[in-house]
Amino acid sequence: MARVAVFVAIVAALGLPGSFSVLGAVPITAQTFGVMLAGAVLGPRLGALAMVVLLALVAVGLPLLAGGRGGISVFVGPSAGYLIGWIAGAFVTGLIVHSSARKPAIWRTAIGTVVGGIIVVYAFGIPVQSVITRLPIEETVLTSLVFLPGDLVKATLATLTVTALLRAYPRAFRRTWLPSRRQDGSTTETTR
To answer: In degrees, to the nearest 5, what angle opens at C-alpha 65 toward C-alphas 56 and 97?
Structure first.
């Protein structure tokens, strides 16, 4: 649980510099970088849990989103789908990065951050933004392309960060969600 709390704090801290909007009501923030890191480091289950905890704290009013935003109102605004997409994005990132019993590889990390941290988050965010802003989905997709260059930079930085962290502190990537077999045939939760 301590690792989940650390990533909640990291994503909240990434919102401190604030945000800015370009062609729309959804702000550009550094917080999706934290979502990618949470999934890549913690794995699917704990990465998603970190995002659930963060969003629960936001829902009760803590100003943890970029620009000091918080409260239930953020879940009915244009960025609501992106926020919910953080949960699925961290989960999918973790699934891809940790899809092998071996330590995370740079290529799996890169694919995981792009698929989970960008494609999955957009898959939740764009339709909700379209409904709330009452713009056609095609127009919303086109206006959302403004996020893509920055998100690709974040995915690259997340991949490099995970690679450096793996070298410097491999214990951060222990696989606690995999059962191991005892000699008597029963399974227990273990770390590798």
So the answer is: 75
User: How open is the CA angle 44-80-50, to the nearest 5 degrees?
Assistant: 30
Q: Taking the domains of the chain in order of start, what are their residue ranges?
A: 2-189
3-state secondary structure of 26: coil
**Host H or E run for residue 56:** helix 44-59
Cα–Cα distance for residue pair 38/41, rounded to 1 Å: 5
Contact (CB, 8 A) for 56 and 8: no
SS3 188: strand
CA distances from 113 to 11, 42, 75, 100, 151 (A): 15, 13, 24, 16, 9
The alpha-helical segments, DSSP class H, found in the chain are 2-14, 31-42, 44-59, 80-97, 106-114, 121-133, 137-144, 148-168
Residue type, 155: A
d(CA 92, CA 108): 12
Q: What is the pLDDT of residues 17-63, one digit of tens each?
A: 766 565 555 667 889 999 999 999 999 999 999 999 999 999 999 99
The CATH class for the domain spanning 2-189 reads mainly alpha
Is the distance from CB of 104 to CB of 170 less than 8 angstroms?
no
pLDDT of residue 176: 45
